[in-house]
Amino acid sequence: MKLIISSVSGEPIYEQIKTQIRSAVLSGELKAGEALPSLRKLAKELRISVLTVTRAYNELADEGVVQNIQGKGTFVMDKGNELMQRQLETQIRESLAEASRGAKAAGIPLDALDRMLEEEYRKK
């Protein structure tokens, strides 16, 4: 897995790391039980602070995406993990709420919004 960090995106670096790791887990690129790079290794590779990587890993652990094992490292959890499923559903609902507000503000009717969602869902 190759992480790409942008210092000009406006999104905090730890969030970029979280998003990319979460996507890799959901896509199957990272398998359950697979180890993530060590904190120091990833920080050195990305030329960022170890604290930034630590924050990303800890927040992913809180979401149930990974598990931190003291002295061993950070490992990918199973996608079927109940906590991870709830977290993902919450994120999806928040994104849908934001999209709904935007559609209302733009005067886009519900049926058009439904079509847009279906188109996005079917994309590979």
TrEMBL record:
Annotated PROSITE patterns: HTH_GNTR
What SUPFAM superfamilies does UniProt report for this protein, alphabetically? Winged helix' DNA-binding domain
GO MF term list: DNA binding; DNA-binding transcription factor activity
| InterPro entries from the UniProt entry | Tscrpt_reg_HTH_GntR (IPR000524), WH-like_DNA-bd_sf (IPR036388), WH_DNA-bd_sf (IPR036390)
Q: Which UniProt keywords apply?
A: DNA-binding, Transcription, Transcription regulation
Q: Which part of the chain is the HTH gntR-type domain?
A: 11-79
Give one Pfam family: GntR
Its protein name is Possible GntR-family transcriptional regulator
Taxonomic source organism: Bifidobacterium longum (strain NCC 2705)
